[in-house]
């Protein structure tokens, strides 16, 4: 369900910028200009001189980039540069306190592992068995708001700039950056992220999960991780370049108790050989103790530029991610609204309601019910809920583990006429009969 894009030139944004606010910033080598645009405003960024990059994407000199509020940005230079910001900002300052040298060294180390993987291709061991030519499987872990997603983007950008085809796997169901919150996704990265719009999302593989934390349904979360790992292995099997390039896996910021167990399980499932632990010494020590010896675990610094968000701001950030899915990062998509007859669809929910063990049939546990499909009759109860449109063609296919083509939101339900109105990124008709109900709701 690819979105329909409105032809908006940059002129639309130019007129939204407050020209009375303009400032030039001169950056020395290894300095970063950090800024946050005021909420509801647009700011124009231009590199006037020198070389600069934003989270690993090179910025083109003189080209205007239009950013809106809600996120933090860091423009970094290895040499020096002059940057102009036109428009209202919440904050804008130059800092020389960045972990970029450390991150660049990590990126070089990962590239070294890719080269070694390439060298192993077509080689055999003493017994004549082919050597494993798999590239590095890098997992990024850490608490919330430490810059995990940004580090993934940086490593992927550096990888692709070296001619690699790394796969990005985002397992963070709360602040998901490939699908929408409540899903997990994988994406082969073929070009650096656009500074404003991020990675090109033309062909992601996305799975519905339906909650914002792994502890809402561990069994389903684990099953999906295994599924996405199988898919990745399969891709590696057919595409040598992807195989050598390895992957970068983003994880949830929940790192205590069961969250920690989930990280260990993820590392095991993917056979991660590099784990980058951001700003969490205790977590790092625990991982060193619990992960096998072949895993290279590194403790990395957090950038002081990373924004810290309250619970309420995290909820707003989640809503903003859903809004971006429908409207585009800068409102350039054109979402559709249309009626869907009840007879054309079947809605399911994954997992039956939790019951005390005493209420379950003898010999069963709650775990048995966590991945069960339950039919849901369309009613006003599902108003504003997100529905994932499954790619499954028959209900016999494993619906819980089939990827989805996209997500719609239920905007109205007319039980008498037996139709519901949905908001969709793509025009009518829906390409799929089977829908999975998310606990997430979205109201625009
Ligand atoms: N160097 C930087 N300068 C300015 N802003 C930054 C910098 N690094 C990250 N940010 C911003 O800080 C915010 C949080 O960063 P990020 O999303 O990478 O953290 P995270 O650990 O993935 O958070 P979460 O736990 O919510 O997934 C984002 O808006 C990001 O753009
Ligand atoms: Mg994140």
TrEMBL record:
Keyword terms: ATP-binding, mRNA processing, Nucleotide-binding, Nucleus, tRNA processing
Pfam family, any one: Clp1
Claim: DNA repair is one of the keywords in the record: no
GO BP terms, alphabetized: mRNA 3'-end processing; tRNA splicing, via endonucleolytic cleavage and ligation
Domain Clp1 P-loop: 142-327
Gene3D superfamilies to which the protein is assigned, alphabetical: Clp1, DNA binding domain, P-loop containing nucleotide triphosphate hydrolases, Pre-mRNA cleavage complex subunit Clp1, C-terminal domain
CDD domains listed in its UniProt record: SIMIBI (cd01983)
Residue stretches making up the Clp1 C-terminal domain: 334-444
Main location: nucleus
Family matches, as InterPro entries: Clp1, Clp1/Grc3, Clp1_C, Clp1_C_sf, Clp1_N, Clp1_N_sf, CLP1_P, P-loop_NTPase
Entry keyword annotation includes tRNA processing: yes
Gene Ontology molecular-function annotations: ATP binding; polynucleotide 5'-hydroxyl-kinase activity
Protein's cellular compartments: Nucleus
UniProt-annotated binding residues for ATP: 32, 145-150
A cellular component annotation (GO) from this entry: mRNA cleavage factor complex
All residue ranges annotated as the Clp1 N-terminal domain in the record: 27-117
Similarity comment: Belongs to the Clp1 family. Clp1 subfamily.
Function in brief: Required for endonucleolytic cleavage during polyadenylation-dependent pre-mRNA 3'-end formation.
Designated name of the protein: Protein CLP1 homolog
Organism: Oikopleura dioica (Tunicate)
């Amino acid at each position: 369900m690819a979105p329909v894009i409105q032809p908006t030139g940059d002129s639309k944004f130019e007129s939204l910028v407050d020209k009375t606010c303009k400032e030039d910033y001169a950056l020395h080598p290894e300095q970063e200009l950090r800024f946050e645009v005021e909420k509801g405003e647009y700011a124009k960024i231009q590199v006037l001189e020198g070389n600069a990059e934003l989270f690993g994407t090179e910025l083109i000199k003189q080209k205007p980039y239009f950013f809106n509020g809600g996120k933090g940005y860091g423009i970094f230079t290895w040499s020096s540069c002059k940057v102009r910001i036109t428009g209202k900002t919440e904050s804008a300052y130059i800092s020389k306190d960045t972990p970029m040298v450390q991150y660049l060294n990590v990126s070089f180390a990962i590239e070294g592992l890719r080269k070694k993987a390439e060298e192993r291709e077509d080689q055999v061991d003493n017994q004549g068995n082919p050597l494993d030519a798999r590239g590095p499987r890098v997992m990024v872990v850490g608490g919330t708001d430490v810059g995990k997603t940004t580090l993934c983007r940086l490593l992927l950008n550096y990888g692709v700039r070296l001619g690699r085809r790394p796969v990005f796997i985002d397992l963070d169901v709360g602040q998901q950056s490939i699908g929408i919150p409540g899903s997990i996704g994988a994406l082969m990265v073929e070009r650096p992220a656009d500074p404003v719009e991020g990675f090109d999302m033309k062909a992601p593989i996305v799975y519905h999960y339906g909650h914002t934390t792994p502890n809402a349904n561990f069994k389903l979360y684990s099953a999906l991780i295994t599924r996405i790992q199988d898919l990745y292995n399969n891709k590696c099997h057919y595409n040598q370049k992807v195989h050598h390039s390895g992957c970068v896996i983003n994880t949830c910021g929940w790192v205590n108790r069961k969250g920690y167990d989930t990280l260990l399980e993820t590392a095991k499932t993917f056979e991660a050989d590099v784990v980058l632990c951001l700003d969490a010494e205790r977590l790092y020590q625990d991982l060193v103790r619990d992960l096998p010896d072949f895993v290279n675990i590194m403790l990395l610094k957090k950038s002081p530029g990373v924004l810290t968000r309250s619970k309420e701001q995290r909820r707003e950030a989640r809503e903003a991610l859903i809004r971006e899915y429908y409207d585009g990062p800068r409102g350039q998509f054109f979402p559709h609204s249309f009626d869907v007859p009840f007879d054309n669809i079947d809605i399911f929910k994954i997992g039956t309601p939790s019951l005390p063990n005493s209420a379950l049939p003898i010999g069963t546990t709650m775990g048995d019910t966590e991945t069960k499909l339950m039919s849901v009759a369309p009613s006003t109860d599902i108003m504003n809920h997100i529905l994932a449109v499954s790619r499954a063609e028959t209900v016999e296919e494993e619906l819980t583990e089939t990827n989805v083509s996209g997500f719609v939101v239920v905007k109205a339900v007319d039980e008498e006429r037996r139709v519901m109105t949905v908001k969709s990124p793509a025009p009518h008709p829906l390409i799929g009969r089977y829908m999975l109900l998310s606990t997430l709701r979205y109201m625009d």
